[in-house]
Structure formats: C-alpha cells, structure tokens
Amino acid sequence: MPHADFAPASAEARPLHLVAADRLDAALAALPAPARAWAEAQGFKAAAGAVLPLPDGAGGLWGALVGLGDAKARARGRFIAAGAASKLPEGDWRLDGETDPALAEETALGWLMESYRFDRYARQGAAKARLVAPEGVDADRIRAIAAGEALTRDLINTPAADMGPAELEEAAEDLAEAYGARLAVTQAGDLIAANLPLIHTVGRAAAPHRAPRLIDMRWGDAGPTLTLVGKGVCFDTGGLNLKPGASMGLMKKDMGGAATVLGLAQMIMALGLKVRLRVLIPAVENAVSGDAFRPGDILQSRKGLTVEVNNTDAEGRLVLADALALGAEENPDLMISMATLTGAARVAVGADLAPFYSDADADAEAIARAARKVADPVWRMPFHDPYEPMIEPGIADLDNAPSGGMAGSITAALFLRRFAEGTRYAHFDIYGWNPKPAPARPKGGVGMGARALLEAMPELLGLGA
C-alpha cells in the first residue's frame, strides 16, 4: 500500500510552531497580532499534543501551534508533535525555522508514521495535512525508515487468511525484486532433505496451500555480514495445546518478527548500507490436524540437538532454532533474531518496550544509545547462565517449554542461543502490536527495535560515519 511522503517545498505552506509550555509567552509574543489574540482567547497552554489553528485576521488560516507540554510530559512522551498530522486542516505545513534540529527530525519521521493508514479492507480517513521536509534533515533517510515501518505494519495488520506462508513469501519476493536482492525458498517437500526438520514439524499440520517453508534473501556483495532471522508464524493456534479464544485473537501478529526484519531489511537496502545482508524467515502456520506434532514428542534439529516438546504452543523457538543454526554455519559478523516469542516478555516490560538479549556489553550499550536517540525504546535482558539447567530435561538435549512458569522470556532466549552458538548474537522478544493509539503509532501492528538497530549499525558493524 502507498506510504506517506513529504509535501514539496512551497511558499503556500503554512507555518507550524512547536511550543513548549515553559516558552509559551515568548512564542505568543512572536506571532502576528490576530494569531496571538486568538491563541490567548482560546486559552492555549501548549499542553502535550494540543493543536490550535491560527487565523490570519482576514477570515483565512495563517498557521498553527502545536504544544509540546512541560519537561515532564516531554520526558514521558515521544513524537509528541506528530499527532498534529491527524488533527490539522488539509494543506501543506512547514516547521518554524527556529525548531531544534533533533526535534525537527523526530517530528518529520513521526509525521510520516502518524500519516500511515491500513486501508486494504476499508477506507481509514487519511491524514490530509502534509509536512514539508524541514531544512537540515535527511529527508531521504526519513522516507526510507518510514517506508520500512509501513511495510512492517502492513504485514502484521493483514489477517492470517491473506497473510499465510505463501503470502509472506510473496512479500519477500516483492522486496527482493525492488532492491535487486536474491531470493531462495525451501518449500515444504524439501525441508527434510535440506535438514530443516523443526520447521517442517511445526508447519506440517497446515493445509497444503499454507505449507511451511524457509525464505532466504541475500543482498549486497561487500562489507561485513549481517544475518537477520525473523519468526514467521503466520497464525498460531497453539497446536494440540490449543490456545483459548481470547489468546488466539491477535495471533495474526505472530509473524511480527518476520515483518520487522523485512522492514529493517528494506531500510538497509534503501539506504545502501555497505553490508552483506541475509534474511532468514521460517514461515509456518501452527495448525491442528491429524499430522500435528504432539506434547511429549522428541524432535531432531538441524544442529543435531534433540528437543522434547512439552508444549506445542512454544513453537516459535523451534522454527527459529533451525533458521539460527543455518545462519550460524556461515559465521556472520552479527546475527539478530526478532520474534513475538513469549508472553513473559510482555508481563516483564509491557507492550511499549522491546526487550533484547546480548552477551556483548558493547553491542548492548550501542543498541541502547541508538534506541534513546531515535525514540525506539528497548530494554536489555540477561542471558542468565544459571538458568541453563531449566531447559535441559534429561530425556532430550533441550526442553521447549520448561515447567514452573518462571523466567519464560529468559529461558526462551537461552534456548535460541544454543542454536546461534559461535556467532555474535542478539535476540529481540518483541510484541509487534500497539494496543492503543499514540502519536506516530496508531493502534495495530508496529515495528519494534528496527529503528534502534538501524541507527546502531555503523557502530555494531564498523561501517564508519
């Protein structure tokens, strides 16, 4: 679906003033008399997200004010000014030339993300206000980031009936074609021969037209090697450990890891980062049929480790295991997995934070710094080695769902680390969904961690300034 873009520079664009509450008096004093009188009459206090169109004194529209709130509101919020995209009257707008450069960049990106609409099935009332790219910002970079985020949102928001493994493959094909990447897909009938048994086992119960596959995309021929692995469970019933209805309602988003790595890959390719990129997506549906895998089964993995199945609803780590083992065989300079993996992560940090795991302190610090800079919040979690015995059942090498209910996100991450052994590795346990609308983040599918990783790439991979 088309994504939002900036308005062309034009003398017709109206001025947009971003006003902090503690600078309101100075901001009002700088306005033309009719606009100032109107703002004072309306009692504008520059509350966070407040928008006030301003008259020109001749019955027309001169410009607008957007409140940023006080220091406390600004510390708590992000993309505060971006909500104006959905509140302002139709037309083109330009930021006041005195806007802080960092605020201008955040607002520009937030504006494009606020303007996103998922309108595949019904018209959503597109934002009519367009922003001229502020002076001094890298408009092409912002466009690329917003477009990658839009791709992620579109994929997650699409219902499972229209976003199964085959459709996820088509999305990867479209992306590869657009950027000259190479795509190879291991289809269901070849998964066993290709030594991808866990992907086959999890997906084998699905209908033939929703059969499992491994999507493998490569791009770039120079620079450090980066492998992105995304969980592509296009719908998760829970398998024979069937989820209750309330837990199944959002399972169209269980391919959010795949959607996020594809969005990140689009950003990387659009910006021409000097890396050799590989994207691996095990695309499956965890369905229920006579051929479904069972609790108590002991499964073989690509790496040779055996896995006891204690819950068929812990399937994401199984399909990721084979993909991680495949990726690790090339010993990339950095491998990252992204997955909507555990409810435990949501209990720990909620819907807004992307928890991640890394054994490398320098990598974790680089990701955290980048996340703060681009307002894409993350939180480091521990690969806590003393919990390793929790994933060792004795009857097999590994347990896919340790009993006890404790440390669920950590034990899942430890499980995945076994298959990424020998590589420099980070894992993101994301939610992929915004439960209520916020500036630049409408309710629905959302990318988490991708912008932070993109910002951190130069430091993580030594790409230079």
UniProtKB/TrEMBL annotation:
Keywords associated with the record: Aminopeptidase, Hydrolase, Manganese, Protease
Pfam families found in the cross-reference section: Peptidase_M17, Peptidase_M17_N_1
CDD domains the record matches: Peptidase_M17
GO CC annotations on file: cytoplasm
Highest rank taxon of the organism: Bacteria
MF terms in GO: manganese ion binding; metalloaminopeptidase activity
GO terms (BP aspect): proteolysis
InterPro entries the UniProt entry points to: Leucine_aapep/pepB, Macro_dom-like, Peptidase_M17_C, Peptidase_M17_N_1
Residue span, Cytosol aminopeptidase domain: 311-318
Family, per entry: Belongs to the peptidase M17 family.
Protein name per the record: Leucyl aminopeptidase
Organism: Limimaricola pyoseonensis
